[in-house]
Amino acid sequence: KPLNGPNARFEVGACANWLRATAATELPGRTLLDGDDGNAEMYYRPLGVVGAIGPWNWPMMITVWQIAPALRMGNTTVVKPSEYTPLSVLALAAVINSALPEDVLTVVAGEGDLGAHLSSHPDIDKLMFTGSTRTGQAIIKSSADTVKRLTLELGGNDAGIVLPDVDPKAIAQDLFWGAFINTGQTCAALKRLYVHTDVYDAVCTELAAVAEAMPMGRGLDEDNVLGPLQNKAQYDIVANLVERARESGATMLVGGNPDADAPGHFYPTTLVSNIDNDNALVTEEQFGPALPIVRYETVDEAIELANGLDVGLGASVWSSDRDAARKIAARIQAGTVWINSHGGVHPMVPFGGIKMSGYGLEFGVDGLKSVSAPQVING
């Protein structure tokens, strides 16, 4: 990750801020009945051992998202980082462990099959996983024998709907970062953009101007705000999807011309217009710096297109009329729908997906509940 922009320093700062916010969040017991009908109180107890399997895109930040509530509720934790990014998580754990009792937080690094051992282990009471839908399905199966509690934040292919009343220039910067934060390697990034025909050309023009002005390169160069793809496999996925879009007749507004001989997995920032909704770049999660921009005619059509896939992590609606945007948001099948932004999260606001994007909530009080055992004392 580049040091500058919403990248490396941003991730480290987010870890510290999230730990502080979670530590300050309380989940007290509450009285359910107190009177002639009886007395009942609800409490939330530690579960025991919480396992956390993290991804490679935001390895430290997402690890903190997983372990902070678990520790806050009195659990011990076992972390399995992605085999692509173990060192940053090991360094993070060393810092946190300097303030924790021994063996409260343990990191076990290894290949992908290590996750299967965690998900089937009888001594792990809860598992938190962020990653692909396919791996999430495997975790569900392997954890079934122990009836393990699960929080699964799985793949997304977030849609954004731009209404015809927008000011294209005013929203272009936020549209860009909604899609291209961490070079597009973010679960809840904007991955397919639906723009009304009345403003389609103007939005494309303004978004292209922003994209062309964003420097990509070596992370230690403070001028760069976009970096490489994390691994060759992901680079190949993005390159293949963009090439298939090109072959279908779509227009490369910006990018789409990687230098195969250049060092590193740098794929240029790419905007693709005049693309059909059934193109693979739209229907498959690219998880990289390539954004398809699809034209639509009516709001009902846009909602149908946005809801047309089997995922539902996040979505966004862009409009100068907030009330109108909120009415449309209520019709979109996604765990979170942002208005005039995309992808922002807050430690006190619950976050989770629907459909094939997983289940369970993280963050805030709901996140604490997800890593605790509810107990009612009745009488």
Structural features, described:
This protein is an alpha/beta fold and 379 residues long. The protein has two domains: 8-154 and 357-378, 3-Layer(aba) Sandwich (Aldehyde Dehydrogenase, Chain A, domain 1); 158-339, Aldehyde Dehydrogenase, Chain A, domain 2, CATH 3.40.309.10. 34% of the residues lie in helices and 23% in strands. It has helices spanning 8-23, 59-72, 86-97, 113-120, 133-142, 168-180, 200-212, 232-247, 280-283, 299-306, 322-329, 364-370; strands at 30-35, 38-46, 49-53, 76-80, 105-107, 126-130, 149-153, 158-162, 190-196, 251-254, 270-273, 290-296, 311-312, 314-318, 336-339, 354-355, 358-359, 372-378. The strands form four sheets. Strands 10-11-12-9-8-14-15 form a seven-stranded mixed β-sheet, with helices on both faces. Strands 5-4-3-6-7-17 form a six-stranded mixed β-sheet, with helices on both faces. Helix 1 (8-23) runs parallel beside helix 2 (59-72). The longest helix has 16 residues, at 8-23. The termini are far apart. The relative contact order is 0.16. The model has no long low-confidence stretch (mean pLDDT 98).
Give a brief outline of the structure.
The chain has helices at residues 8-23, 59-72, 86-97, 113-120, 133-142, 168-180, 200-212, 232-247, 280-283, 299-306, 322-329, 364-370; strands at 30-35, 38-46, 49-53, 76-80, 105-107, 126-130, 149-153, 158-162, 190-196, 251-254, 270-273, 290-296, 311-312, 314-318, 336-339, 354-355, 358-359, 372-378. With 379 residues, the protein is α/β, with parallel strands linked by helices. The protein has a seven-stranded mixed β-sheet with strand order 10-11-12-9-8-14-15, with helices on both faces. Strands 5-4-3-6-7-17 form a six-stranded mixed β-sheet, with helices on both faces. It has a three-stranded antiparallel β-sheet with strand order 1-2-18.
